[in-house]
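fyi for ur records
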Amino acid sequence: DRLGLAFAAYPRNPILVNTLLVRNNEINSYNDLLNDKWKEKILMNDPTLPGPGGHLVGVVGDQIMGYDYLRRLAQQKPLILRDQLLQVQWVATSKYPIGIMSDTQAVTELQKAGALIQELAPVEGEHVTPGFGSLALINKAPHPNAAILYINWLLSREGQDIYSRAAGVHSGHLDVPTDFLPPAMIRNPAMKYADISSEEYNLKMPEYLKIAKEIFGPLIK
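which gave:
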């Protein structure tokens, strides 16, 4: 069997806004994106490919808002990009006010550089992701005992604390400190989260990408 263990679990805020162009509390819900004001003013990471954009259908469509919502979102004629850095740059430079499923690392780097951008968590819910925070033990590894020793340490409170600080993400452990993390990276107990690391979700990914092509394919240039 091929198994992977996800040990990190941080929120994936799906909406990115330029705070000069979007007023505070102007977008709190996925439905706010359907306002005529935002027609042709939304950037979207390509939902027909695996990656940040690829989770739009599986999370927002399948688990939170429904596929009819995605069809209405497509009527807003979002510009679909595959270049994840460019998407964030265009929001940061006020070329577009809103981005959907933007790359978190690119957002963090531009925020550190002073960009007036903010990730938002819609009230209906979002998802948690392990990012790079997952592992698997290779079958017939040359030194399996050493690998097991490392894994046991990595999954300990000490190992998770060190990883969380180095990677800047929330550990799946509930006893690991979070005071050094930005609020957007900390799970909120009151928020509904979809888990994209589950086996069930990943087995359905080909179906999600097929639906994405049906709904958003005509918009891809």
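The beta strands are 5-6, 10-12, 15-18, 42-45, 79-81, 98-100, 117-120, 126-129, 134-135, 193-195. thats all i got for now
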